[in-house]
Amino acid sequence: MGRVLAIDFGKKRTGIAVTDELQIIASGLTTIDTNNLISFLKDYITKETVDLFLVGKPKQLNNTDSESEVLITPFLEKISKAIPNIPIKRIDERFTSKMAFQTMIDSGLNKKQRQNKALVDEISATIILQSYLYNK
After folding, report:
1. pLDDT score of 22 more than 70
2. How far apart are CA 24 and CA 118, in angstroms?
3. Rounded to whole angstroms, what are the CA distances from 73 to 2, 15, 66, 84, 123?
């Protein structure tokens, strides 16, 4: 069995989380500059077996797509062409940034550490992945 790789796509930075090979445990992997995302993913799949890309789907409270979706759609087209053999699944990512920030508070991180937006993105990707694992 291969890993599931979760992507919390952002305009500047993208958080990445990944499961173990048995797809039981979700762990934050890294935060990457969005401009380097496709090359990072191509490189990663040469080292690890990935069964699925899980991409967050930003929704508003009324269940309509958020304005961020306009940025994600071109990325989905690029990744489908660049890595066509790995399926992509979308998952609702509402409130993941707030949950990530609360996780940082609960973990005892100080104010300066909580201002690390890259860490928020990585934790958000992990929350997206955990949500998928709980509901699969």
Report:
1. yes
2. 24
3. 25, 17, 12, 15, 22
The residues, any chain, with a CB within 8 Å of residue 3's CB and separated by 6 or more, are 18, 19, 20, 21, 23, 48, 49, 50, 51
For 73-106, write each residue's pLDDT tens digit.
Answer: 999 999 999 999 999 999 877 667 666 667 767 7
Question: Angle at which helices 37-47 and 69-82 pack, to 10 degrees?
Answer: 40
SS3 33: strand
Alpha-carbon span 108 to 121, nearest angstrom: 18
Question: 109 burial class (0-12, 13-18, 19+ CB within 10 angstroms)?
Answer: middle
User: pTM for the whole thing?
Assistant: 0.84
